[in-house]
Every structure is written in C-alpha cells, then in structure tokens.
Amino acid sequence: MSSHPLATDLLAADGGTISSIETAINNAFDPISAAVSNVVFFTVNIGGAAVPLIVLWLIVGAVVFTVAFKFIQVRGIKRALILVSGKEDEADAPGEVSHFRALTAAVSGTVGLGNIAGVAVAVTLGGPGATLWMILAGLLGMASKFVECTLGVKYRDINEDGTVSGGPMKYLTKGLAERGLAKVGKVMAVFYAIVITFFAISGGNMFQANQTYAQVRSVTGGDDGFLGSDGAKAVFGIVIALIIGLVIIGGMKSISAVTAKLVPSMALVYIVACGVVIAVNFRSVPTAFTAIFEGAFSPEGVAGGVLGVMIIGFQRAAFSNEAGLGSAAIAHSAVKTRHPVTEGFVAMLEPFIDTVVICTATALTIVIANTVTWQDQRAIVAETGELPAGGVTLTSDAFETVLPWFPYVLTVAVALFALSTAITWAYYGLQAWTSLFGRSRLSRSFFNVMFCVFTVIGTVLSLGSVLDFADATLFLLALVNITGLYLLLPVVKRELSEYLAMRRGEPDKVDAEV
Q1: DSSP codes, 337-381
Q2: 164 SS3 class
Q3: Nearest 5 degrees, angle CA 160-CA 161-CA 166?
Q4: What pLDDT shows up at residue 512?
Q5: pTM, rounded to two decimals
Q6: In this predicted model, what pLDDT tens digit does every residue of 298-338 receive, in sequence order?
Q7: How far is CA 206 from the centre of its chain?
C-alpha cells in the first residue's frame, strides 16, 4: 500500500477505498455464508434447547472413541506425560521433531482468541454452569485426538528430503484404500485438503491478524492512537506478515522451534494473569464454584435448561480444541517415532491444555471476578437472548478488576496466541496445498507468499462474511474426518495392542492395558 499522505487519507476516510472493498466483498459473501452456515450448523429442538447437529456429531464421536478405547484419556495420561517429557525420544527415528515440539506446534494451532473471547461468550450465554460441561467435553475430546493423531503418523509420507507429509489427506487416502474404499477415500481427502487450505488462509490467518491489530490498537489510543489510521494498519499487517514469513520458510523444524518457546510462555503469561485475578478475589472462589456446579444442573435464564447449558459448554469446547476435525494430526504426523500410537498418547494432552486448563482459567476468571459488565450482559441475554458485547471486552474487564494495566497483559496474550495460531495454520495449509498441487519448490513458495499476502489483507479488511463462511466450512471437515476415523478404528486398536505388547516384551500377545 502506498504511504503517500493523500492515499492514506483516502483509504482512512469514511466510505473510502478500503471501506468500499470490504463492503463489496461482504455483500457478495453474505448469502453464501448464510446458506452454508444454515446447513453446517443446522439445529434441532430438543427439550427447548437448540442443538447444532454438528456439535452432536463431534461429541458422539468422542464418546464412541472413549468407550472403544476404555477411557484411554484416563488410563493413558501417565504414558503421555512420559513421552512428552522426552525420556523415550528416539533421535534416529523417522520424522522431523520431538514429541514435545509436535505437541506445542499443535497446541499453538488451537489456542487462540477463542480461548479468551469464545469462553467469555459461553459463560455469559450459558452462565457459570457452562464451565463444567466445557471441561467434560474437553476430556472426551482427548479420545478423538488419540485416534486421529495415531492415524496421522501411521499413514504419513516421509519425503526424500526427510520432511513429513501427514494428516487426514494421507490417512483418508491410504487407510481407506486398504479397506477397499480407494475412490471414496480420495474424494474425501481432496475435499478435506481444499477446505482446510481455505480455512488456513482465512480463519487461521486473516482473522488472527485482524484481531491482533484490533486489540493492540485498542490499548494504544484507538482511533486517536498511532495505529488509528489505515496506513498504520497496513504497516502493522506487513510487520506481522514478515514475522510469519521468516518462521514458516524454515518448515516444521523452524515452526516447532518457535512454538516450543512461544506456547509455554504465552500459556504461562495468561494463566498467571488469570491466577492473579482469582487470588485477589479469593473470597469469591467458593461462591463461584458453587455457581458453576449448581448452574450446570439447574441453570437460570438459559433456553433448554440443563440441556441448553450443556450444549453451550460442549460447543465452546468443540470449537476451541478442534478434536475430531483432524487438523492437529497434520502437526503430530511430523514426530520422530517408530510407533504411531505414541503420538496418539501425546496428542491427548492437547484438548487438556487447550480446554481443561486454558478455557477453564478464562471461565473461572470471569465468574470469580463477577464484574458489573458481566452481570449486565447476562441480564440482557436473559431478557433478549442476544449478547451485545464482544467476549474480549468481558475478559478484559475481569482482568481490570485487579489492576488498570491488566488489559495490556491480555493484549500480549492475544498477540502471542494469534501469532502462534497463524504460524501453525500456515503449516497446515501448506501440507494441504502440496497434497493438491505437489511439493515442488515453486508450489511451496507460492503458498507461503500467498499466505503472507493474506496476512496483510486480513489486517486491513475484517471480511466478516468470509470468515463466517470459513468457520462453517471448517466444521464440514468433521463429517468427513470422523467418518474416516470410524472406518479406521480397527487399525488404531491394532497399533495400540502391538505397542503395549512390545512394551511388555510379549510381541505375540495383545491387550488393552496401559
């Protein structure tokens, strides 16, 4: 974008070039987005609660996998922690990164603004009780991650240069071909690759850049601050794009090196911030926990009662940790291991960190702070069924009950979450892109440049309708992915049995004990 003052003034003017472009694109996408969203998030009325069928599909899948593997998320947690600690890393095993780095790369793709804003919306619409159901959904989602990430490693490709290509694009193609469904598997894999490439560029990139800019701008003076003009907005986008570009050009090893440092740091900053709010309001802790448990089973002002608040909690968890969508299997596939199921164990920690720890920290912070803003918003929801304020505002206000400068801590958290999410989704998008167009240097370079260009576009244009469309299409992946997981369940059971028998030194025997 030109830095000439006249151009900047034109772009910044109300109804200027940027505004016109954004309005035109949103108007074009509005009917498409509405139609797709209505199909993907189709709801049925059960006991007075509007239940999105796609959320039921995700939760039913998680329950099936939990039962099929006899609560592997409980029995296998010790093994997961041992593996992620690095005690059993195989330096000479095929793959690119350690268990820990594969985990941090995958976590960085799910931990984002949804953990801050989305959770605030959940506990406002569903009340404190949504927290309990959110935790339960996170625990169930651990089983889905176990299945899809085991398959991701099982059917990955090790390329000539030692890099890895994995994820649903591979296990839907190769795994279903083994079961005599080669054509079906190929169609499913191509559909998956197209959709996830689109989401990587939009929801995993443009949205993250846009929200980072919005939060930084708000704490630096808003319209009157140094980031208030469209010229500054473009410069901000270019800086973010350059940072992302420098990281993703090095591939998975470079990405994992950054996320291995960034993810623990950002999680620590955010959880400590939440902990300070909770500690300062410690007298309210017992009351808040009582409200959470009572609200889970006897909610007030929530459509559908218990079922209504349960769906709100489940929906937030499903949208946050992406268990059942298959995206995380792309990152986990790059692990150095000879035993696919080891990464299945490690992947279970992802929903635990994302939902049980970080989402719960957000929910507890808001419920315990019990700000006037949150009370007012809940009253409006009870009266109208609508949430007028954004989720980030509610979380920011909870932080501000402790110290006025806490919103700056939130800004750092949002920026770190968004940056790490965009970096990981660049990798997801590249893997999907190369599965469609080949792994030539030109193909990979084209995608990386395109991704960075859209980072700048996302900062300048919010494109709400485009992002709504991207969100809807992302959840279409659940239909394809979970169907594939059901069909390939025997493969995962065999991998688990063989691994456990090997650990016992009894390769000829199998059982399901961890």
Answers
A1: -S-HHHHHHHHTHHHIIIIIIIIHHHHHHHHHH--HHHHHHHHHH
A2: strand
A3: 75
A4: 43
A5: 0.85
A6: 776 566 567 778 887 887 787 778 888 898 899 899 899 99
A7: 14
